[in-house]
Amino acid sequence: MTNVSPLIRRGLWRFAALLLVGAAGAVAGADGPARAAPDPGPGASPASPGAAAAPSKSGKPPLRIAFSDWPGWTAFEVGLQKGWFKEAGVDVEFSWFEYSPSMEAFAAGKVDAVMMTMGDALVTGAPGARSVGIIITDYSNGNDMIVAKKGITSLKALKGKKVGLEIGLVEHLMLLKGLEKAGLKESDVQLVAVKTDQTAQSLASGDVDAIGAWQPNSGQALKAVAGSRAILTSADMPGLIYDLVNVSPKSLAQRRADWVKVVKVWNRIEAFVTDPAHRDEAVKIMAARAGVPPEEYAKFLPGTRFLSPAEAVAAFEKNDTLKSVYGSGKVADAFNVANKVYKDPQKVETYLDPSLAKEALAGAAPHAAAPAAKK
Question: Which of 61, 164, 171, 244 holds its CA 20 to 30 A away from the CA of 53?
Fold first, then answer.
């Protein structure tokens, strides 16, 4: 399996452009071909995402779910390896993708569900590939960063400076919200378009004064430039970047009871992954799915804030703050419209259904309902 970073990444908000030009049915994404779904992993079905799923003993086809390499999503491999979906009585078929192709597969109807950020659910839905978020797995808790060169120790010190990042992606949004809190406007800095995988080099060469990137690129920048430091991270804005499991409205309507079972399994997975007693085993399973050494994968977990079942239900409550996925979604929607990712504002509430999480929590066993210890 190719040794690629576990944070290839959510947050490709430019994905709407692919849909609008008819690329939704493609297997390859804007950032290259999908990771050879040829190796679906020990717990996943080897079937192609485009192939018709064979009915199970229940007479129903398995739920087809696309996931990609972000710790909050890779954790599902734990449930697959442990056989927890079978124990719960729900047939699933997980397919492993790079992030952008996973959304393309969903838009093309090749899978029933896909794991996306709240912002990307709006991006894929605006052109027509609507989805409903039923699980909030986590939010970014430090993996996204604004890294500045030596001598720049705060966002206010960025005034008049060059910041290299990908325009329209999540780091752009994070920078804008950070500048706002610091009393600055976007026009107070000079944005330079730099691809995320080139940000470390750009900072090291002196082409820019700061960069916006996610791990491992942000970490590479910190190592490459002596005296550099992170002056803003997603940990400073908890809830700005929520990660979810999004289901097609049709599948949710037809198989709601089965999707509730999936939510219950996820609750069990979250409790296992966040339990210090099981951390090493969980990291080993997740790292194997991602194709990287466990010690490398473990470095990224603190930057992913897994939500307990109770915390996820709380995040599903409607309000306009970042403590709510609704409030966070409105921020992402405004950003997307302002940056012409799509034209018309989206109704965030139509993209979310908290009822399954509430039902799963109400009927959970005590060990699953109790908030797990956090790292």
Answer: 244
Tokens of 201: 């080099």
Asked if 208 and 164 count as a contact pair (C-beta separation under 8 A), the reply is: yes
Distance CA 130, CA 230 (A): 36
Q: Are 341 and 13 contacting, i.e. CB atoms less than 8 angstroms apart?
A: yes
pLDDT score, position 116:
95
Looking at residue 176, its pLDDT comes to 95
pLDDT digits (tens, 9 = 90+) for 163-181: 999 888 889 999 999 999 9
Task: Please classify residue 153 by burial: count the beta carbons closer than 10 Å to its beta carbon, then call 0-12 exposed, 13-18 middle and 19+ buried.
Answer: exposed
CA distance 71 to 341: 26
pLDDT at 117: 92
- Our measurement of the distance from residue 108's CA atom to the centroid of its chain's CA atoms, rounded to an integer in Å, reads 20
Q: Which two tokens stand for residue 63?
A: 């739920």
Question: Whole-angstrom Cα distance, residue 282 to residue 280?
Answer: 5
Q: Do 241 and 190 touch, CB atoms closer than 8 A?
A: no
Instruction: Please report how many Cα atoms fall inside a 13 Å half-sphere around the Cα of residue 271, on the Cβ side.
Output: 18
- pTM, whole model, 2 decimals? 0.81
CA distances from 68 to 76, 108, 221, 308 (A): 10, 17, 24, 21
Over 60: is that where the pLDDT of 104 sits? yes
For 62, residues 6+ apart whose C-beta sits below 8 A from its C-beta are: 45, 53, 56, 91, 92, 93
Measured CA to CA in angstroms, residue 70 lies from 2, 67, 116, 120, 270 at distances of 16, 9, 10, 14, 14
Contacts of residue 213, defined as CB under 8 A and 6 or more positions apart, other chains included, come to 144, 145, 147, 165, 171, 196, 199, 200, 221
Both structure tokens of 194: 């730099």
Q: How far apart are CA 230 and CA 146, in angstroms?
A: 6
For the residues of 198-256, what is the DSSP string, one character each?
A: GHHHHHHHTS-SEEEEETTHHHHHHHHSTT-EEEEEGGGSTTSSEEEEEE-HHHHHHSH
The label of the residue with tokens 């799509």 reads: 342
pLDDT band at 300; cut points 50, 70, 90: confident
Q: How far apart are CA 85 and CA 102, in angstroms?
A: 21
Q: What is the DSSP string of 284-347?
A: HHHHHHHTS-HHHHGGGGGGEEEPPHHHHHHHTS--SSTTSHHHHHHHHHHHHHHTTSSSSPP-
